[in-house]
Amino acid sequence: MTFELYPALDIRGGRVVRLRQGDYAQETRYADEPLAAARAHAEAGARWLHLVDLDAARVGGYTLAPLLHEIRAQTGLRVQTGGGVRSEADVEAILDAGAARVVVGSLAVREPARVARWLGRFGAERLTVALDAREVDGEWRLPVAGWTADSGARLDELLARYADAGLRHLLCTDIACDGMLAGPNLGLYRRVLARVPAVAVQGSGGVRDAADVRALRDAGCAGAVLGRALLEGRLRLDDALREAA
């Protein structure tokens, strides 16, 4: 299995930003223009881009279709993207705009039966289920609405359900690690992979350097999402790509 890297661009108000642990009140803005940033990643050797509509993640209504179209036309990157996906029509529209995979987050937690049916309709290669987890009293819980609301759902339950439905691509984030540059939660990924060994798991949150990329690969992940470390120049994409190889 090829270990893939997913440089991430989180977009809010048309700008590249990062949130600290998913908190919209703790936003860092970057000077990079989104299309130029995507182009730079492609020139450095990336094959994929992880594109997130943070505005839509809270209220629905994916807004990045024009940007997605331009990224595909100008860079050739394969784009995994989501934010605000609420319906089959949303999935169709994002795929039609050029996405290789659509990321479904909050709805995948709130309505797993519905999203499981989408795996059958669109195919397991066209969807990535995002289960973003926060450990509370020893349990891994799954908040929704841009990580602002408790869904009541538990990670282990949904892992089993989606594996049975034929899930292929899972994006899993430890919210406590997100944007913290303190290293990924390797224990979480080992736990996930022990429960769903046939699923390609993307590690997300906390990656600081090439050693963290290597650690995720060695833990059995199929890929890693790279955010703040790339944006702030702490990690060079070409160094990360060498570790991925």
Topology:
Blueprint: E1 4-12, E2 15-20, E3 23-29, H1 34-43, E4 48-53, H2 54-59, H3 65-75, E5 78-82, H4 88-96, E6 101-104, H5 106-110, H6 112-122, E7 127-136, E8 139-144, E9 149-154, H7 155-164, E10 169-174, H8 186-195, E11 200-204, H9 210-218, E12 223-226, H10 228-231, H11 237-244
Parallel strand pairs: 1-4, 1-12, 4-5, 5-6, 6-7, 7-10, 10-11, 11-12
Antiparallel strand pairs: 1-2, 2-3, 7-8, 8-9
Helix pairs in contact: 1-3, 9-11
Pfam families: His_biosynth
EC number: 5.3.1.16
InterPro entries: Aldolase_TIM, His_biosynth, HisA/PriA, HisA_bact_arch, Isoase_HisA-like, RibuloseP-bd_barrel
Describe this structure in words.
It catalyses: 1-(5-phospho-beta-D-ribosyl)-5-[(5-phospho-beta-D-ribosylamino)methylideneamino]imidazole-4-carboxamide = 5-[(5-phospho-1-deoxy-D-ribulos-1-ylimino)methylamino]-1-(5-phospho-beta-D-ribosyl)imidazole-4-carboxamide. The active site is at residues 10, 132. There is one protein chain. By secondary structure, the chain is of the alpha/beta class. It has one domain (4-244): Aldolase class I (TIM Barrel), CATH 3.20.20.70. The chain has eleven helices and twelve strands. It has helices at 34-43, 54-59, 65-75, 88-96, 106-110, 112-122, 155-164, 186-195, 210-218, 228-231, 237-244, and strands at 4-12, 15-20, 23-29, 48-53, 78-82, 101-104, 127-136, 139-144, 149-154, 169-174, 200-204, 223-226. A hairpin with a 2-residue loop joins strand 2 (15-20) and strand 3. It is globular.
The CATH H-level superfamily is Aldolase class I
The assigned CATH architecture is: Alpha-Beta Barrel
Supply the CATH class. Alpha Beta
Order of helices and strands: EEEHEHHEHEHHEEEHEHEHEHH
Biggest sheet, in brief?
8 strands, parallel, barrel
Report low-confidence residues grouped into runs of 5 or more.
none
Residues in helix, %: 25-40%
